[in-house]
Amino acid sequence: MNVSVKAPVPDVLAAEAGQRFRDGMALLAGAVTIVTTDGENGRHGFTATAVCSVSDTPPTLLVCINRTTSAHPHVLDHGVLAVNVLGGAQQTLSSAFGSRSKTMDERFEGARWRRGVTGAPLLEEALATFECRVERVVEAGTHTVVFAQVLDVHLAGEQTDGLVWFARRYAVVPTSC
């Protein structure tokens, strides 16, 4: 049985709750990834921490994309994406892909890339890369939630420290933890 009760919330409380929500979410560490796509509209990418596993049968990821991100329409148009998991030494690359002032060419210049089976750019130095096909899209608030079926997975030969976003800054997680 589904029961939904919506109590009215004054605008002032809603604004305060929104800030508390953002402050609380800042304390939820997230792996830093670069999501890329390529196709008719060229290659595009952005930094994301809102990526998680949905299921291993079939292998499916959830990727949240802010609709104001310049890559947003291209991921949807191309229908494919790659989630490149960053290591501790890749903060500069993450910052480049998170910058609105850099062109796509400038973002991609900072690393070595190869084309995957989907055509999406794969970061050669990524800890792991998940090549995906967009399966389902749901609009939620300011974001589009993409359910992406994983078609292939590439793992780094040697595991290095991981890169996470925590308390509004980068943190490195050693492989020995």
From TrEMBL:
Report the GO molecular function annotations. FMN binding; riboflavin reductase (NADPH) activity
* InterPro entries reported in the protein's UniProt record: Flavin_Rdtase-like_dom, NADH-dep_flavin_reductase, Split_barrel_FMN-bd
Which keywords annotate this record? Oxidoreductase
Kindly state a single biological-process term from the GO annotations of this entry.
pyrimidine nucleobase catabolic process
The Flavin reductase like domain extends over 25-172
Q: Which SMART domains did the record assign?
A: Flavin_Reduct
Which Pfam family is one of those matched by this entry?
Answer: Flavin_Reduct
Q: What is this protein called?
A: Flavin reductase
Q: Organism source for this protein?
A: Gluconacetobacter liquefaciens
What lineage does the source organism belong to?
A: Bacteria, Pseudomonadati, Pseudomonadota, Alphaproteobacteria, Acetobacterales
